[in-house]
């Protein structure tokens, strides 16, 4: 999210950008960043509503963690603001179902969400010992762990009519199906999920299956 805000600040310096964070994790020049003060009783949702009244164009809310914040974020999105936020969920299907659980209607999600990006970091196999049990014990490059560095897996699904997977998930929202059914529909539409990406990296030797299972679980 910080990378996207930096891009906006660099390419569109006159655009009004406000963040509401808990806490501020990185300083970005030329944008207004605010940090919640729990002792003052202000919540992410109330701070977001206040920021909307300040005629902001782009807003970052550090995390959607409750129905109140979800509702405020969607209202801001539907009134023309560009909102960035994070949510704890396993993938795009789980993200949409989580928002439904927060009480956001499916039609609001279809109108208010432009894209959902999910990502994980996998430890990269050490290039020197290649994770070999005997060699890694004495490997100085990875300090005996078998891993050195990390590699990202990610997918970004758009809901603006340009992405067949996004269109498929929108229709699944209308039907009210489970996250598992949504995933099956998305895969049939060409979605390459995080697990498939991770397993491909394991086959290529970039990482290994134990690391895939550690990050994504065994199922």
TrEMBL record:
Q: Name one Pfam family in it.
A: T2SSE
Keyword terms: ATP-binding, Nucleotide-binding
List the record's Gene Ontology CC terms alphabetically. plasma membrane
Query: Which is an annotated GO molecular function term of this record?
Result: ATP binding
**Residues in Bacterial type II secretion system protein E domain copies:** 12-214
* Family, per entry: Belongs to the GSP E family.
Tell me which PANTHER family the record gives.
Answer: COMG OPERON PROTEIN 1, TYPE II SECRETION SYSTEM PROTEIN GSPE-RELATED
From the Swiss-Prot or TrEMBL record, give the protein name: General secretion pathway protein E
